[in-house]
Amino acid sequence: MSKKTTAFKIRDILFITMMILPILAGILLKVLFIPASDGISITGAHVFFTIDFPIQPLIISEAQVNSWLVIISLFFFCLFMTNGIKAGIHTKRQVLAEWMVESVENLVKSNMGEYFIGFAPFVAAIMALSAFSSLLSLTGLFPPTSDLNIVAGWALLVFFLITYYKMKCGPLHYLKSFGEPVPFLAPLNIISEVATPVSMAFRHYGNILSGSVISVLVASALQGLTHLLMGKLPGWLGEFPFLRIGIPAVLSIYFDVFSGLLQAFIFAMLTMLYIGGAFALEDYLAIQAKKKKTRTKINT
Amino acid sequence: MQTLDIISVNIWQIIISLSNLVILFLLVKKFLFKPVKSMIAKREEAAAAELKAAEEIKKEAIREKMAWDEKMAAADDEADEIIKQAVVKANKKSGVIINTATERADEIIKLAKFEANLEHKAAEEGIKREIVDLSSALTGKLLSREINPEDHSELIDEFINEIGEIS
Description:
Number of strands of chain A: 2
Helix content of chain A: 55-70%
Shape of chain B: rod-shaped
Number of strands of chain B: 1
Shape of chain A: globular
Largest interface: A-B, 56 and 39 residues
Distance between the termini of chain B: 177 Å
Number of domains of chain A: 1
Structural class of chain A: mainly alpha
Strand content of chain A: under 5%
Distance between the termini of chain A: 60 Å
Radius of gyration of chain A: 25 Å
Oligomer: heterodimer
Number of helices of chain A: 9
Structural class of chain B: mainly alpha
Radius of gyration of chain B: 64 Å
Largest sheet of chain B: none
Largest sheet of chain A: 2 strands, antiparallel
Strand content of chain B: under 5%
Number of helices of chain B: 2
Helix content of chain B: over 70%
Order of helices and strands of chain A: HEEHHHHHHHH
């Protein structure tokens, strides 16, 4: 293995700090600007400021800022993974980077087919953003995925992509697809078309939010239980919530880590399946072939 | 300072989030997928080149080996041929040498015989001459004492003939 150069090391250190710095900045922002809620309450994202915009005011909320922080962190993570990448030399990091890229590509290939291989970075981006947004709750920050607007934005983008790929065979083909298998089912088809992004957004958002809601409820229930069991103890011993030690952490592993990663995976899978299913590759190729034929006919 | 409702829909927030995802997609594509894929492509290229080179070298080696085998087989034959030729040549040469040797020997013998003959003849002549001289001297002496050739001619002839018979 070649000796690591100083520039390489400096870049490494820079990238790692830039990965961690956004999270620290988020925590700092929260400490400075958001008043600690007394007691147990379930609220949405904190609003930093609002700007007057047409239709609706533009709101810069905690969820928005946190998702930016996640993006910055991920950007530097990418730079860190590909730092000093070379064809010949094998470092653990390089193998890991290769594994990430290839596993996402294999996932895309097996779910969407060879034609959609360009979607691999998109799927990777969705997965990473969703997973790390959910995992942000481990640091005590507001997870952006438990804000409906954030997830709705992603779902809307997926909906645009679905529609684009349905339109690719021509608008007529797209309209015809609503009349299948029988024309009078068209209203249902339209509803299901619209339901796709809505269901995706609400599924993801609801899972993450419900996790935090349940965490809060369990925490408050445990406090009540301790008070009931040990309230008779003298002094501060009676006040101290013993049962809140440890038990919420175990629940947090499920609701924050497992559920967050699972929802990220589900969202990415649904994206792949919907977009892959929206595009009739055979029809498209047939149309292209026909076009080519007519073109050559005109030329000759 | 206020917080949003748990379920709130804000079109601008949705658009911002949408563009966030697009931006992250571009970042991931540019900074993770592109370098890794180009690296993989480069490595595959290098591996393919190496394999090709190895194949070529193998082919070359097999070709060389076959040539060597052929050469080895040919060399055995050649060695046999050379030995045969050498034997034949040696035989020929020895025959020639022996022939010349015998010829020379014959010649020498002939020459010796001839010389011996010559010497013999010369000696004979010499002896004859000496005898003649001697006899003539003798006769001279005899004659000078009593010269009467008519009386003694018969005796002299007899004498000479006798000598000739001896020689």
